[in-house]
Design brief:
This protein is 82% helix and 0% strand. By secondary structure, the chain is an all-alpha fold. It has one domain (3-183). The radius of gyration is 16 Å and the shape is elongated. The chain starts with a helix and ends with a helix. Mean pLDDT is 83; it is low at 93-99.
């Protein structure tokens, strides 16, 4: 897989964590760099681990579904992208999630990295090595989450749903690209 495609996937996957980081920054009374590092590290770590778990699951399934693997990769990426777009349009009445407690941070880290699990499965079906994409996904998510906390402190929810829509559209486009490459 081309390095630019891996970077685009990483950016798209980091959008959920970025949006939650923005909301977390908004909820903080006082922002310290250690809070931003704690949030960014947790989100980045989970985003790096989940594709590996998905990839390992895909290795076991690869022999059974090799004839339709490109359709499955497309469906997973389009489904995750569609879910991101759908969720961005939902009315969010809940309080902004402050990520300071360990339990909240772990729950939010898992919740924002489930999409990365599906992408890891897709990469496995496409026979893409997982180590480099996982590292890139983790680093990009760390950077976006760290910045998101500070951006949230400054501008709040102004761009949150737009960011999630952009991430969803990127994943759908990559799914279409994979499908077109395998069919053509």
């Amino acid at each position: 897989m081309h390095p630019a495609t891996i970077l685009i996937i990483a950016v798209a996957l980091s959008m959920d964590a970025f949006a939650v980081s923005v909301a977390s920054g908004l909820a903080m009374e006082r922002l310290h760099v250690r809070h931003a590092i704690k949030i960014a590290t947790s989100f980045g770590l989970f985003q790096a681990i989940m594709p590996i778990i998905g990839w390992l699951a895909g290795v076991g399934l690869r022999g059974f579904i090799s004839g339709v693997d490109h359709w499955i990769a497309f469906a997973l990426l389009a489904g995750v992208g569609g879910k991101m777009i759908y969720e961005s349009r939902q009315i969010k009445d809940e309080e902004a999630p402050e990520c300071m407690s360990l339990l909240k941070l772990l729950v939010l880290s898992v919740a924002t990295s489930i999409d990365a699990l599906a992408v890891g499965l897709s990469l496995s079906l496409l026979k893409v090595a997982i180590v480099w994409p996982s590292i890139v996904i983790g680093i990009v998510t760390f950077v976006f989450s760290f910045a998101g906390v500070y951006i949230g402190r400054k501008v709040g929810h102004l761009f949150e749903s737009t960011i999630e829509i952009a991430g969803g559209l990127i994943l759908i486009a990559i799914g279409i690209k994979i499908l077109v490459e395998h069919l053509g």
